[in-house]
Give the backbone structure.
Amino acid sequence: MSNAGNSDLTTKKNTRCDIAVVVPAFNEAESLPELIDRIDAAITGMGKTWEAWIIDDGSTDNTFAVVEELATARPQVHGLSFGRNFGKAAALAAGFEAVSADLVITMDADLQDDPAEIPAFAKLIDEGYDLVSGWKQDRKDSFIKNKTSKVFNWFTSRMCGLYLHDFNCGLKAYRRVVTQNVQLYGDMHRYVPALAHLDGFKVTEMPVKHFARKYGQTKYGMARFINGFLDLLTVYFLHARHTSPLHFFGRIGLVSFTAGGGISGWFLLRWALGYGMHVRPILVLGLILIVVALQFISLGLIAELIVAGRRPEESYRIARRV
């Protein structure tokens, strides 16, 4: 199957199916045939129709050649190939754009996720949830990856107000309306549950099995850990505080201005009472705090101008319509 253009995607979207599976893949040629067999067995056993979109994220092995072979053998399999490695968030975004089903499943291509879990995910979606995130209770990863993941999940839960054990599990189920609303870029894929929660969707988690990697090597590194925390700040500021940025930055500015003004006022009072004015470190600190306060307030005002320039419909999401 060759690279799909916009016209190809439109044709595929016109063919509706029950469940779509989006699989980002980077150098996972050995795993894909078994993964597709297991996806077929799981969904066909439910009596549902399905499609799988495998997104080759700039692989350097023969991943996309395997995708072409699978697509030739099974009409349910489709593929997209990136010209270079753009990251998992970009791969998911491309898959979300391509799918036609109302129920979307995402899973990694490395066989550490079990497609046999799909029926249980579908059941929770039928019960009214918009997004169901997997929870790898017994992780088959390295000691460092397990510990850093716990720290990451702890911080994310408290900053976003959504308490999940495992935000970054690749196995998730979504209503299509969620995939069409969340904006993915950078490493934002790990925050899809938080993004959906902040947009008012109903989110839960479900314990899932986790298996040791069968082929290839893990793509985890410390750079992903650092980028994850930086993206968490982006999620917090852009979504939790986007309605009135000045309320956030202004509070910091007022605290800084109060402290700096108090220090400077004390020295001015002493000067007015006849005491000599001497440059001391604490006086310099007071002046710095005033300058910092003005910068934070100015930053808040600039952010307010950006928010005010958005179209009104970008400020809310309609959940139901009669």
